[in-house]
TrEMBL record, chains A, B:
Organism: Roseibium litorale
Residue ranges that the Swiss-Prot or TrEMBL entry lists as coiled coil: none
Gene3D superfamilies registered for this protein in UniProt: Aspartate Aminotransferase, domain 1 (3.90.1150.10), Type I PLP-dependent aspartate aminotransferase-like (Major domain) (3.40.640.10), Winged helix-like DNA-binding domain superfamily/Winged helix DNA-binding domain (1.10.10.10)
Family statement drawn from the similarity comment of this UniProt entry: In the C-terminal section; belongs to the class-I pyridoxal-phosphate-dependent aminotransferase family.
UniProt KW keywords: Aminotransferase, DNA-binding, Pyridoxal phosphate, Transcription, Transcription regulation, Transferase
Descriptive protein name: PLP-dependent aminotransferase family protein
Lineage top rank: taxon: Bacteria
C-alpha cells in the first residue's frame, strides 16, 4: 500500500492517471490478487483513488490522509549533508528540541519593539504598506548603516550600500555577479553549512583552509590561495560559525595581504557582529571596501521573519548588484521590513536589548559547558560571545551517527561534518547554547553516545 | 571639477587615494594650473579631499555635498533597455508622474485590511514575529491557494505548492533549476520587460513569437518551437503584459500541444488573474501542473511591500526548488508576510475590494482611451481588465524618443521596445490607466509628439 502512496506523492502517478489493474499489480509485487484488491479498496475508502466502471482505478488527486503520510519515509531519512540541519530545523515540529539550530528562541528576541513597530506601521503612510521598494532599498536604513560603519572606522557612502532580502540572498547576488561555473571559491573548514549549499548551486569548485582558534591557518591559507587561485573567499567576521572563535589582528592582516597579492575578492559575513563584547578586527574595515565586500542582516539580532539584509561594497559593484536584484527579485526588499528595522535600531531600546542578550548568552554558555562536561563533550574554544559551542566528542564516536539517533528522540543536532568541506569534523557537534536548557537533550545525547554501535 | 567628483563617486578614486598633482591634472585636462588649483581648493573646502603636507591631495571618503551630486550625470542618461522602466519607476521622486509603471497607486490598494492585519500581528504570537519560515512557506497560505486552484478545476496538493519571496523570484528559482547557460528560452513579443532582464542574468538565448490579440501567433509558435527547441516558454495568463489581450481557448490548446510534442516546459505567470472579469483559459489548468508551472504573487492585488509569491508545480520539482531556495535565501519567505496575506484573503473584504478595483480600472480605461484619442494614440486591443493600454503612435513617431523627452517633464513612460525582444515595438507605448488622471501627462505627450525632431 505504501508503494502506491509513494508513487502518488512522487507524482509518478499523477491525478487522473490510471493505476495498474489488480492482477498486473499483484504480479509485479509478487503478492496475491486478493491482497491487492484489499489495498485498492482501502485506498478508495480514503478517497485517494476512485474506481471508474469498466475502466479501472484512477488517482483522484485528493490529499493523502495525514496518518498515511506519517507512515511513509519522511525526509528525515536523508543523508547528513549541508541541507540536513536546515531542513530539520526550519521544518521542526513544536515538540522537537533544536540544539542544532542557528537562531535564538522567539522569547529572546526584541518582541516588544517589533510589536511597537507593527502598530506604528498600521497607522503609517499608505505607500509604505503597498509600494515596491526603491532599487537600493530604504535610504533611512542605508544612512543608519553607514553611520554604524563610520563608528567602526569604515568610511562609506550610501551609494556603497544596498539592501537585500536577506544575508544569504546578499551572498547569492555577489556569487551571481562574480562567479562562473567552474570557478574556485575558498571556504574555512569548518564553516557555515549554507555557504557550501549556496556554492554548489553556483556549480563552482570549493577548496578549504583549516580554521584555527586565531583564524584561518596562516601557511595553509597562503598555500591554497597560491595553488588554487580562488576567485572568492567567503568567511565570517566577529564570531566564527560554527567554532565561535575570533580572528586575531595578525591573521586578519595576513589574509588581506595574501588576497591582495592574488587578486582574490573576500566576502565578509557580519551577521553576528552585535554579539561580540567588543569589536574585533574586520577585514572590511582594514581594507576599506576595496577588495572586501561586507554583508549582513538583522535575522539573528532582530527578526528572521522581517527579512532584510545588506551589501556594502565598491560603488560600481553595488550598481551591478542592484541591476541583478531588479532582474531576479524586482525592486529592493520590503519597505515595510526596512521601516520596522530602522524604527527598532533608532528607538533607544536596542542597545539595552543587546546588552541583556549578551549577558544571557554568556550565562547559557557557561551553564551548557558545565552540563556537557560529564558526557565528555569539550569546547574546542570558549567563545567571547554568540550562540555556539563547538564541542569535541570522546574518541571513537561519530557525530553524524549520534545526530541520527537523537532524531528518534526528537532532538535535532548539528553534526560536525555538515560544516566541513573536507569532511574532517566527524568528531564534533555544534550546540546553540540558547536551546540547551531542556534535560531531555542531555538524556538523548547520553543514550546516543553510550548505546551499542549500530550501522547508520 | 565634475570629473574629479565623478571619479570619486565611481570609486576610480577611492577614499585614501592620492589625487594627481595640480600640474599633472592640469596637463591631462588641457586646463591652466591655476584653474585646477582653484578646483582643488573648492573640493577641499567641501571636505571631499584633504591636503597632506608635502604629500599632495587625498580623497577623504566623506559624502559629496547633495548639490554636487545633483549636478552630475544622473542614471537617467542611460539607454532605453529592459531596466529603463524599472529603475525610473522604482526610484521615482514624489513629483514624478508614472504612467509607465506596472502597479496601482497606494490609495487604490486594500490599506484598511493591511492596517488591520498589522494590528493583529502586533498582538500575535512571538514566533510569527521573529522565526524563520518553514522551507515551503506557511501551510495556511498554501492550503488557501490549493483551495482557489480547486475552484478553477486544478487539483493540487500542498506538496505541489511553495511560497517564495516574490513572483519574480519564483521565476528566477525555476530558471536556476531548469536552465543552463546557452539554453534557449521562448518569450512572447511583446512581453513583460523583466522576463528579458531575468533571462539575460541567466545567460540563455532568447527567441520570440509575435503575440496576437488571441495569443501567440499559431503558425509562428509551431515554427519557432520546432526550429529552436526552447527548453522553456515563459508567458502571462489572464491579461497579457503589456498588451492586455486574453489568450483564446484554441490558442491555449495549440500552445500545450506544441509544447508537449517538443518536450518544452511552460511557466505561466498568473499575477494579474484577479483582475479578469471572468476566468479565461489557463495553461496550468488544462495541463494539470504536469508540463506547466504556475507562478503568482500578491504584489499587484494586495501589496508589493509585503513580499510573497508562490510556485505550483510537479512535486518533485517543488522538492528541488525548495532546496534551491534554502541554499540561496535560507528558509521560505517571511511568515509575517504570509500571515498578513492569509488574513486579508480570508477576511471577507477581499472579494468586494477586487470588485471595486475592477470597476475603477474599467472606468479609468475608458477615460484614458478617450483622452489619448485626440493625440492619435489608439489601443491595439481594448482589454477585458487589468491596468494596461497598449497604444500605437501615429506613423513616423518613435516611442523611445518620446519617452526620453517626457522625462524632462518628469513623466515616466513605458516605451514599446523595452517589451520587445525583436525591437519591433518602437511605435507603441504602454499606459497604466490607474496613473493617467493628471493632465500634465497629456500635455507632455503632446509636446513630445509634436515638437521638432531631435537626435536622441
Amino acid at each position: 500500500m505504501d508503494v502506491v502512496r509513494v508513487k502518488i506523492v512522487n507524482r509518478s502517478l499523477a491525478p487522473g492517471d490510471r493505476l495498474p489493474s489488480i492482477r498486473r499489480f499483484a504480479r509485479s509485487m509478487s503478492a496475491s490478487p486478493s491482497t491487492v484488491a484489499e489495498v485498492y479498496a482501502r485506498l478508495e475508502a480514503e478517497g485517494v483513488i476512485r474506481a471508474r466502471r469498466g475502466s479501472g482505478f484512477y488517482v483522484t488527486g485528493a490529499d493523502l490522509p495525514p496518518m498515511a503520510l506519517a507512515e511513509m519515509g519522511e525526509p528525515r531519512e536523508r543523508t547528513v549533508d549541508p541541507f540536513w540541519v536546515s531542513r530539520l530545523s526550519l521544518d521542526a515540529g513544536s515538540s522537537d528540541l533544536m540544539p542544532g539550530c542557528g537562531w535564538l528562541p522567539a522569547s529572546w528576541m526584541p518582541n516588544g519593539a517589533i510589536r511597537k513597530g507593527l502598530r506604528a506601521l498600521s497607522r503609517g503612510e499608505a505607500g509604505l504598506l503597498t509600494d515596491y521598494g526603491s532599487t537600493r532599498g530604504a535610504l533611512a536604513l542605508r544612512r543608519l548603516l553607514i553611520g554604524r560603519f563610520a563608528e567602526e572606522g569604515l568610511p562609506a557612502t550610501v551609494s556603497q550600500v544596498m539592501l537585500t532580502g536577506s544575508g544569504t540572498q546578499a551572498i547569492d547576488l555577489i556569487c551571481r555577479l562574480l562567479l562562473r561555473p567552474g570557478d574556485t571559491v575558498l571556504l574555512d573548514d569548518p564553516c557555515y553549512f549554507n555557504f557550501q549549499a549556496l556554492l554548489r548551486a553556483h556549480q563552482v569548485r570549493i577548496v578549504s583552509v583549516p580554521f584555527t582558534p586565531e583564524g584561518p591557518d596562516a601557511d595553509g591559507f597562503e598555500r591554497v590561495v597560491s595553488a588554487e587561485k580562488p576567485r572568492l573567499y567567503i568567511t565570517n567576521s566577529a564570531l566564527h560559525n560554527p567554532t565561535g572563535a575570533t580572528v586575531s589582528p595578525q591573521s586578519a592582516y595576513r589574509v588581506l595581504s595574501v588576497a591582495a597579492s592574488h587578486g582574490m575578492t573576500i566576502v565578509e559575513d557580519d551577521i553576528f557582529a552585535d554579539f561580540e563584547p567588543a569589536l574585533s578586527p574586520r577585514l572590511a574595515v582594514l581594507d576599506g571596501l576595496n577588495r572586501v565586500i561586507r554583508i549582513g542582516s538583522f535575522s539573528k539580532t532582530l527578526s528572521a521573519s522581517i527579512r532584510c539584509g545588506y551589501i556594502a561594497a565598491r560603488q560600481d559593484w553595488i550598481e551591478s548588484l542592484t541591476d541583478l536584484q531588479i532582474a531576479t527579485c524586482f525592486s529592493g526588499p520590503s519597505p515595510l521590513a526596512a521601516s520596522i528595522i530602522t524604527g527598532i535600531l533608532t528607538g533607544g531600546s536596542y542597545r539595552r536589548h543587546m546588552d541583556e542578550l549578551r549577558q544571557r548568552l554568556a550565562s547559557a554558555r557557561e551553564e551548557t559547558a558545565k552540563r556537557l562536561a560529564p558526557l565528555g563533550l569539550v569546547p574546542w574554544v570558549m567563545p567571547r560571545g554568540g550562540f555556539y559551542l563547538w564541542c569535541r566528542l570522546p574518541e571513537g564516536l561519530d557525530s553524524s551517527s549520534i545526530a541520527q539517533r537523537c532524531m528518534e528522540d526528537k532532538v535535532i543536532l548539528a553534526p560536525g561534518n555538515v560544516f566541513s568541506v573536507s569532511q574532517t569534523a566527524g568528531g564534533f557537534l555544534r550546540f546553540n547554547v540558547a536551546h540547551m536548557a531542556d534535560k531531555r537533550i542531555y538524556m538523548a545525547l547520553e543514550k546516543a553516545m553510550t548505546g551499542p554501535a549500530r550501522p547508520v
